[in-house]
Every structure is written in C-alpha cells, then in structure tokens.
Amino acid sequence: MAAVLTRHHDVLAALHAPEQFSNKVSSHLNVPNGMDGAEHQAYRALIEPFFSNVVLTQFQPKLQVVIDELLANLDAHNDVEVMETLAHPFALRAQCAFMGWPVALEQRLTDWMAAQNAATLAKDRPTLRALADEFSDIVVEQFERARRGLTAPESVTAQLTQLRLNGDPVADDYLVSIVRNWTVGELGTIAAAVGSIVGFLAQNSVVQKQLRAAPMHIDHAIDEILRLGAPLLTNRRRTTCPVGFGDQSFEADTTVTIDWRAANTDPGVFAEPHQFKWDRDPHLNLLYGAGVHVCPGKPLAQLELRLFTQSLLNKFTKIELGTRAFERAEPPRGGYRQLWVKLSQLNHSSAKSTCTAALE
Ligand code: HEM
Fold first, then answer.
1. pLDDT tens per residue across span 123-142
2. CB 30 within 8 A of CB 236
3. Do β-strands 336-338 and 327-328 pair in parallel, antiparallel, or remain unpaired?
4. Per-residue pLDDT tens over the stretch 65-113
5. How far is CA 270 from its chain centroid?
6. For residue 288, which of 64, 163, 212, 295 is within the disulfide window of CB 3.0 to 4.6 Å?
7. Does ligand 1 have an atom closer than 6 angstroms to the CB of 232?
8. Which atom of ligand 1 is nearest to the CA of 301?
9. Does the beta carbon of 230 sit less than 6 angstroms from any atom of ligand 1?
10. CA angle 90-91-95, nearest 5°?
C-alpha cells in the first residue's frame, strides 16, 4: 500500500518531527529541500535573506511592469486561455525579473519548461536527466555573466555568486541546486496558483466584488482560494525509524508522501472543506507547509500573487468563465491544464458618463 499522509493532524505531526521524517528522499542534490538537520539550517540561513522585505520592496516596481505588460497585451474581445496566455508567462517573467536575468533567456526557458513538463508526464527518465544538465548549463552561464560584471551587482544572481558558507564560496553545483529549487519547482506552482485564482474568481462574482471594494483582503482570500485549489500537490519524506500514526504504521526507510490537498481539505479540521469561507483560521492552512521546511519563498509568492490579482481586478470589471469548458491539470500538477475566461473592461463612454454623473 502506498504510504500517504492525508489527515491534517498526521501531516502536521510529520512536519514537526524531522528527525523521524527525513527530507533525504533522493540521491540528487536538492538545496535546501533535500537536506536535514544542521546542513539544512545552514543553507536555509543563506537563502532566507533573498526573500526579505528590502529585496521584495526593490523588486515590486519591476514585477508591476511585468504584470502591466502581460495584461496590456490581453485580447479583451475574445475568450482568453489563462494558462498559456497569462499563468505560465507570468511565472516565468516574474522569476527572470527577480533573478535579474536577461529578457532573451525567456524563450530558452519556455522551451526548456515545455520539454520538462512533457518528460515529467511521460516519466521519461533519460530525457529528464538531459534536461537537468541543460538547466545547469543555463544557470551556470548566468553565474558567469554575473562574475564578469555583466549583471547588476545588486541582482539576485550576482548576490548568489557572492554567498559564503563557513568562509568558503558556495560551489556552483550547490548554487545551481538552489536556483533549481526556486525555478523548476516554483514556476509550476506559481503558474498553477494563478490558474486556480483566476478560475475561482471567474466562478465567484461576489468574491470578485468584495475584493475590488476591499483589496487589503486579497492575501487572505488568495490563501483560502489556494487551500481549495492546491497549486502544489505533494512533497515526500523518508522515515528514519518505525513510525505509527493511529491506524497507519510505517517501517523504517519508507518513502511517505505528504498530500497537501487532502490535508488542507480535511473535514475534521475545515467545516464544509470545499467551500470558500472568509472566517477560516489562517494558521490551519498548510498551503506553504509548516515546520523547518516551511516555504521560505512565501513572501515572494504572496507579493507576486497579490500584485497580479489586484492588477487583474483593477483592469477588468468582470471576469467570467469562457464558452469553452476548462480542463483540470493531472497530478503531479495542480490547478488547471486549460482555463478559458472572458475579461470585460468598462468601456470609455460609460466610464465618462459615470464620472459626469458623480460630479453633477
Ligand atoms: C504559491 C506558491 C508557493 C507554494 C504554494 C509553495 C509551497 C511550499 C511548500 C508546501 C513547501 C514545503 C515543502 C516541504 O515541506 O517539503 C515549500 C518549500 C519551499 N519553497 Fe515554496 N511555495 C511557493 C512558492 C515559492 C517560491 C516563489 C519560492 C522561491 C522562489 C519557493 C521556494 C521554496 C523553497 C526553497 C522550499 C524548500 C524549503 C526547505 O526545504 O527548507 N516557494 N514551498
């Protein structure tokens, strides 16, 4: 039987017992998610400053440019397919802007991601290995550019090349792994999150109106929307000793899957778990995990999703489902594979008459 933790209580217990549930589930280097104990803490301490308030405040205007360009190019007369037109390009461009990578890299990364998605779904291991090497080459090229002074010194990529651990520079394979953790995993998660948010808003005009009237509640609403429409489905642990949870017990050295979607819709913890509710306790939401491996990128993810949602709600007065039916993504992906929406803007003549009416 597959070892899967689905109950909120069991997932929390495992997350808070890292000495029994190790993150070393694969032989591949995975910084910091595939590390335990002191080694994990050391690399966490290195990466956390990249998501500080100071860094994110500097990044915000660049992120707004990315969003404005994407929304300006949308066709407001026809149905829009959200995943291809908005979600994936947004995730990629936001990440390139965050890293300080040249715009020219976008197409190469887009092609790489398409190949990676296809190989993941086909479980094509040789192609996945070749793609992993290609990703390393792309990232090492960016480190080399930074070292030759071709990147702004304050850029995230340049700062990464300056990292030191116990006085020594961090080796390139570790730096590549850090960037792989931020990019390969998280581009898909951010894109899936955008799909889940737009899909939810298109089917819930009341919440749309509430958020337009009270944008300060956008973060809170997004966390609840993504509790329902999980963008990240699973992570894994390996037991270091025999472990028992209620009716479940695992031998030592068992790979255990943490099912975020199931835990976050556990009816024992969330009343009417598949309903959106404003008054949920945010501390129960496991969207960004918990314990020592809790997502360090949460402030960046929240900034990206908040700014995107706010800009979309500001620009379009109505977001509705399009005429073509949506298709849900299949595991290991969360959210939607395809999502068609109709976006309406207030036309200028009616905007003018409303203003005139208000003045009179
Ligand atoms: C909606 C977006 C996101 C969601 C839902 C999410 C969710 C999560 C979750 C649940 C974990 C815990 C994994 C575990 O326990 O094994 C995690 C870890 C992590 N996340 Fe995120 N994440 C998001 C965005 C990001 C972004 C944008 C970044 C960075 C650019 C990021 C970087 C990381 C890293 C490095 C870890 C590993 C931390 C560790 O093992 O100590 N995440 N994320």
1. 999 999 999 999 999 999 99
2. no
3. antiparallel
4. 999 999 998 987 899 999 999 999 999 999 999 999 998 898 999 899 8
5. 23
6. 295
7. yes
8. 27
9. no
10. 110
Amino acid at 360: E
CATH class of the structural domain 4-105+183-359:
mainly alpha
**Three-state secondary structure call for residue 163:** coil
State both tokens at 192.
């899936």
pLDDT tens, position by position, 297-322? 999 999 999 999 999 999 999 999 99
Q: How far apart are the C-alpha atoms of 157 and 52, rounded to whole Å?
A: 15
Ligand 1 in contact with 229 (CB < 6 A)? no
The reply to whether ligand 1 has any atom less than 6 angstroms from the CB of 33 is yes
Q: What is the pLDDT of residue 1?
A: 61
Residue whose CA is closest, atom 32 of ligand 1? 297
At residue 347 the predicted structure's pLDDT band, cuts being 50, 70 and 90, is low
What is the SS3 assignment for 227?
A: helix
What is the DSSP-derived secondary structure letter of residue 271?
S
Residue to probe by mutation, ligand 1, list 179, 255, 295, most atoms within 8 Å of CB: 295
